[in-house]
Each structure stands twice: as C-alpha cells, then as structure tokens.
Design brief:
Layout (H helix, E strand, L loop, with lengths): L5 H13 L3 E5 L18 H4 L1 H6 L2 H6 L1 H17 L5 H11 L3 E6 L5 H5 L6 E3 L2 E8 L5 E3 H9 L14 E5 L8 H11 L4 E5 L11 H7 L3 E5 L12 E3 L3 H8 L6
Parallel strand pairs: 1-2, 1-7, 2-3, 7-8, 8-9
Antiparallel strand pairs: 4-5, 4-6
Helix pairs in contact: 5-8, 6-11, 9-10
This protein binds zinc ion.
C-alpha cells in the first residue's frame, strides 16, 4: 500500500523521530478504519444521504421535529455501535508517550483520540464532540448517553432537563459558529511545532485547514498523510499516500507486532 513512497516514508520517519514538538491535524480518514463514515467524500454520509445533510444544518434541525427524531434514532445506533480507536490513533499515542506530541487538532467528532489515551487538554476538537449533548437555549452540556437513554426509554425528541430547549449533539452544525477558543488553541499549537502532521483530511474545510499555512509560516515542516491529493499539497515538505492505519504507525516509529 506504500506505492512508490518508500523513500518519503523513510524520510518522514526520521523527521518525526527527531522532532521535539509535533502537532497533528486529523480528519475523517483516520477514523474510517474504526467504521465511522467519511461525511463529505464521494461515498460520504452527507453525499449519499440528503436527509443526513439536512440534519447537520442548524436551521433545519431546530425547526423540524421529524428530522430531530430521526437524528436521535441515528445517535442511538451510533452509540450502540461503540467504535474503537484503530492503529492510526494508537500510533499517535506513542508520540504522546515519548513526550513529542504538542497537540492534536481534529475535525472529527468521534472522541477516539481521547479514548485511545491522549489527554483531553491536548485534543482540540474544532467541530465538537458527539459524546456530549448540548441545549441550544441554555448551553447545558451532559454526556450524550443520558439523552440517548431517554430516547431508548420512549422519548423520541428529548428536551433540555433544565429549560425545555431543543437538545443537539455538542458538535458544530452547518450555519453554526465555531468556538473561538478552540480555533485559537489549534492555531497556537500549529505555530508552535517542529512538524505539522496532517492525517486523513483533504484540507479543504476551513478554518481547520488554515493550520497548515500557519505552521509553515512559523517554520514547521509540513507532512501530509492521506489516501489521495489534498488542497494543501503545494505546502507539503513530504507527502505520504497509502492506508493510514498501515503507514501512520510506521511514520511514528511503532514496530509492527
Ligand atoms: Zn436548556
């Protein structure tokens, strides 16, 4: 699966081994091997299912109760499927254990970096986290499992226990503003690293993708690992293609078992 990039794999291995601070930017591609669908790709959830795209748009979600009911059924299924971290996530844990990990900036909402063993304060989730619910009215946040349990027990559209407002997942929907503090932390980590390692993202969704030029301008080496071309390839010092779950452990110096 390494195609013709054997040389670039070897060079990146050396680059990462020598780095003092690595900031990693992750997208959907690192989680597909955990059974979590890509949202925007050609076979992505939003591409194949217009209803899923509507459910991911704030104005539709807030005004359409039927859509919310279907969203809750999806959350019941999603939490029940219990996706687990894969070898790609685990490779980044090795960086963390060696004291090289500055931060992970992720576009994913699956919480798998934390579940793999990365300390939560090192994970900047620019699009939020599906494991929490949030009230649109009063911002009350709780574990998603609590709301999902209410759905299982027969409430098709559970409301906020404090104020009765509409509950959503604590993720950023279309039309919804990002959290400025999270974006600032993501930029700061990108500007304070020797290597910016972008994994499994086409780097076409902003502002997360701005981490790449920011790191580059601050003097970091940019390494892109992805199954196909990205919109930031022109900024890459190294580009490695191939199966992320095979190639990322190698790049991070994890010996095959
Ligand atoms: Zn509320």
């Amino acid at each position: 699966m390494l195609n013709d990039d054997t040389n670039s794999v070897a060079r990146v291995e050396v680059l990462i081994a020598a780095a003092r601070r690595v900031t990693v930017l992750t997208g959907a591609g690192i989680s597909t091997a955990s059974g979590i669908p890509d949202f925007r790709g050609p076979n992505g959830l939003w591409t194949r299912d217009p209803d899923a795209q509507r459910a991911a748009t704030l104005s539709h979600y807030l005004r359409d109760e039927d859509l919310r009911r279907r969203s809750w059924q999806n959350r019941v299924r999603w939490l029940g499927s219990d996706p687990l971290p894969n070898d790609g996530h685990k490779a980044l844990v090795k960086l963390h254990e060696r004291g090289q990990l500055r931060a992970i900036v992720t576009q994913n909402v699956d919480g798998l970096h934390q579940r793999s063993g990365i300390e939560p304060h090192l994970v900047h989730e620019v699009h939020g986290n599906l494991h929490r619910s949030r009230c649109w009215e009063c911002n009350d946040r709780r574990p998603m499992a609590q709301a999902v349990q209410r759905v299982i027990e027969g409430d098709p559209d559970p409301r906020c226990l404090l104020c009765g407002g509409v509950l959503k997942s604590d993720t950023i929907l279309f039309e919804e503003p990002l959290v400025p503090e999270v974006i600032e932390a993501a930029y700061a980590a990108s500007e304070d690293c020797d290597v910016l390692l972008a994994v499994g993202s086409t780097l076409g969704v902003y502002p997360a993708a701005y981490c790449v030029p920011r790191a580059k301008e601050a003097g970091a080496r940019v390494v892109i690992v992805n199954g196909g071309p990205t919109e930031m390839d022109a900024l890459a010092d190294e580009f490695v293609t191939g199966d992320i779950n095979t190639v990322l452990p190698r790049l991070c110096g994890v010996q095959p078992e």
